[in-house]
């Protein structure tokens, strides 16, 4: 949950007024068939493009984020074969709600709709990899999906490199 918190903090700007609506089921490598969290981009659940294997996508991620350890990539690939629930308290300063939260006030408007993958870790949990798909309610050009690497520094997760999967254009 701490990795998700770092990601949500990263989306928002310091002192900003972003409101984040987050799906409580994770994205996967699945294409076609049932998509557990309802997110489908070109028939896939966010972690790759149609016609591309998970291994091909992760080769691109490794190229774009050269400091990623192979064990982190392997963990990520294994964990994201199926979706999981992330329902729970996320340690973040971001104003967020879960997509299916029945208690969302009627006047609460979100800035971003967010889907995340499960987190892959290296053996000592000092490096993490997560996919983040965002849809901006105000500006479609701020919508896209990217793999984000994080490193644990002084007990806190810090965002490192990114690798784009897709981005909406104007």
Can you describe what's shown?
With 170 residues, the protein is of the alpha/beta class. The protein has one domain (2-167). 18% of the residues lie in helices and 28% in strands. The protein contains 3 helices and 7 strands. The protein has helices at residues 2-11, 54-64, 70-79; strands spanning 19-22, 95-98, 112-116, 120-121, 127-136, 144-153, 156-167. Strands 1, 2, 3, 4, 5, 6 and 7 form a 7-stranded mixed β-sheet that branches. A hairpin with a 7-residue loop joins strand 5 and strand 6. The longest helix is centred in the middle third of the chain and has 11 residues, at 54-64.
Given helix and strand content, the structural type is: alpha/beta
Oligomer: single chain
Q: What is the total domain count?
A: 1
Describe the global form. globular
Largest sheet properties = 7 strands, mixed
SS strand fraction: 25-35%
Please provide the count of β strands.
7
Order of helices and strands: HEHHEEEEEE
Mean pLDDT: 91
List the total number of helices. Answer: 3
């Amino acid at each position: 949950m701490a990795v998700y918190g770092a990601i949500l903090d990263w989306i928002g700007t310091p002192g900003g007024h972003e409101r984040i609506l987050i799906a409580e089921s994770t994205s996967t490598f699945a294409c076609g068939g049932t998509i557990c969290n309802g997110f489908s981009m070109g028939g896939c659940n966010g972690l790759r493009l149609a016609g591309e294997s998970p291994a091909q996508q992760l080769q691109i991620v490794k190229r774009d984020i050269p400091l990623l350890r192979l064990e982190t990539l392997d963990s990520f690939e294994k964990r994201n074969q199926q979706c999981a629930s992330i329902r729970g308290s996320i340690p973040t300063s971001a104003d967020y709600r879960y997509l299916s939260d029945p208690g969302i006030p009627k006047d609460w408007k979100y800035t971003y709709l967010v889907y995340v993958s499960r987190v892959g870790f290296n053996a000592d949990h000092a490096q993490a990899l997560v996919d983040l798909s965002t849809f901006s309610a105000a500006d479609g050009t701020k919508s896209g999906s990217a793999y984000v690497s994080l490193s644990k520094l002084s007990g806190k997760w810090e965002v490192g490199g990114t690798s784009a999967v897709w981005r909406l254009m104007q």
